[in-house]
Amino acid sequence: MSNPGVLTCAACGAAGSGNFCSSCGTPRAGAKCASCGASLTAGERFCSSCGHGVAEPVGRLAAVPPRDRTPWIVAGVSLAGTLGLLLFTLARQAPVQPVAMSGAAGGAVTAGESPPDLSTMSPRERFNRLYNRVMQAAQAGDEATVSRFSPMALGAYQMLDSLDADAQYHAALIRAHTGEVEAARALGDSILTRTPGHLLGYVVLGTAARWRKDDKALQRAYRAFLAGYDAEMKANRPEYAEHRFSIEEFRRAAQGASGAAGS
Questions:
Q1: CA nearest 175: which of 68, 39, 82?
Q2: pLDDT at 52
Q3: Do the domain assignments include residue 243?
């Protein structure tokens, strides 16, 4: 006679009970994200609200298998029309504050300026500073610094009391630069859930699809992006102005793929 309290994990097949599989950590129906408290869909690996790994301790990055890591920074290669180098393009164009950082944020301090004290900043200011530090390192091809400060930036992101598309896009870029493409994709889905049609959501989904070699998902992202581009640009969202270069690069890639498909 079967025990109604014992469930079979959809991911690994192990029997057990509770909201999470004790064998592989996969969530069951009713499980909550340990980072933000959002409800998790049974079987998902990343929270679609904050991008936190289901089995990942709060404030830390989950270990990424070597095969999932991508050499994001490639120097001296043309960027025009090459979606394969889109993440490099995003990092190169990601807006950063013209402030040198030190102490907890790393880097040098300009003459006459005291090192910034992250402990005195609001969560959003702290996240922005650490995001800038990661992007500056990515621009310089300093992968060691990217790896060092990404967990700190993502920890600050998880402490934000409210999330908007701009913050989620920044978190997705950080996730992508540390090789966590699926977590970045989950954040793209979250952007579109909160703001249907948001162009940055499609940029994230398309980039993740490209690196997963999922041509169908990439084409879906392209089509949806182009279909909503005109109306969305009329909305004059501040983040569109901030990330205009990245949006236009993705648009050119989408138009090129559309033309190739129609020829």
A1: 68
A2: 60
A3: yes
